[in-house]
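wait is this the right file?? whatever heres the structure
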């Protein structure tokens, strides 16, 4: 699943992403663990690993699209 970063707090390493269908999901620092990412910028495209179903899916991992 792909999304666009709509907010990122570099201190807490948490943020929000906007899915292509218009839904917004939040993520915590745990979603960046093991990715090597220290920050994200607003408007950046990312790939998500998500678990659970609507209305409250959980973002498990956030990666930049160009990274494996």
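ok assuming it is, sequence goes like this
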């Amino acid at each position: 699943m792909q999304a666009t970063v709509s907010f990122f707090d570099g201190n807490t390493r948490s943020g929000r992403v906007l899915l292509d269908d218009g839904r917004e999901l939040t993520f915590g620092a745990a979603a960046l663990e093991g990715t090597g990412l220290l920050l994200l910028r607003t408007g950046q495209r990312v790939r998500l690993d998500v678990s659970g179903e609507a209305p409250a899916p959980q973002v498990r991992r956030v990666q930049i699209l160009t990274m494996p």
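The chain has no helices and five strands. so i think its the right one actually
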